[in-house]
TrEMBL record:
Official protein name in the record: RNA polymerase sigma factor
Keywords: Sigma factor, Transcription, Transcription regulation
SUPFAM superfamilies: Sigma2 domain of RNA polymerase sigma factors (SSF88946), Sigma3 and sigma4 domains of RNA polymerase sigma factors (SSF88659)
RNA polymerase sigma-70 region domain mapped to chain residues: 26-94
Coiled coil: none
Membrane-crossing segments per the record: none
Any one GO molecular function term: sigma factor activity
The organism's place on the tree of life at top rank: Bacteria
Amino acid sequence: MTSVPVTDEALWSRSVAGDGEAFGLLVDRHRDRVYGHACRLLEHRHDAEDVTAAAFLELWRRRDAVRLVEGSVLPWLLVTTANLSRNSRRGARRWRDFRNRLPRADTSPDPADQAFATQPLHDLDPRVAAELRRLKPQDLRLVSLVVFYDVPLAEAAALLSLSEAAAKSRLQRARQRLRDALADHGPAHHPIKPAGAKS
């Protein structure tokens, strides 16, 4: 004698009453079709898995409001899966758009950093080297480019994303700071000279 399958209606009535086992049977019955529907609507399998789980979660969460169609819970699940898939695609698109708007880090070496990195500060008077290291990083790069490597001020400013006027002002302040510091300690053996100056 063959047993009569339990209908969705019977399982759903028990689920609405809080019967988790009956709800589990509904999940087992319809999971593959819901997942297949999600796979057709979404690009990635893991997204389809997430949407399938979310659809059944919504079914349980809203069980007091769900209405069966011709005695089956499947139509409600398929509509919910389509809605969740649309939201998933929209969220993924927003995330991609957000990432595309983020400023990209320049992976190429910064010429200013390279210039300063190769400047042998140990060859300078220790007082000069100490004062240079106390400068703000951008001022230090500017001094390194213009003073040590004879890079024209306008080009150094462009490399450091500064206006030429701002770069000139920063360079003057840096030089003045160095002069003041060295004046406090007497003459240095290797003073900082403007670019192109003769020894």
